[in-house]
Hints:
Blueprint: H1 15-24, E1 27-35, H2 44-48, H3 50-60, E2 67-74, H4 84-95
Antiparallel strand pairs: 1-2
Amino acid sequence: RLERTPFGFGRPYTxxxxxxxxxxxxxxxxxxxxxxxxxPIRSRMxxxxxxxxxxxxxxxxxxxxxxxxxxxxxxxxxxxLVGERQRRTADARSARPAVAPAPALPKAA
Length: 109
């Protein structure tokens, strides 16, 4: 790896590694994309051709992308339903007014 470019930093992951890591943290990958097929360059001629090279890379050289983008949804579960009696008790408890602080005593003159 070249350490002088943005492509030389970070920890490379494969799609399967990212998918497994997301599943372990309760995410479900829904879409995977790859991007940045042209390395950082200063040549104006090559920069003008960069969009074409990006299209070629996305079509034929996906393994050489600089970035892996993953879209995922979070698999979160609702709390279990409680029985009707427990539900009524919980509703009654939450409807009770909170205890108000005692009023201040009047000042003696």
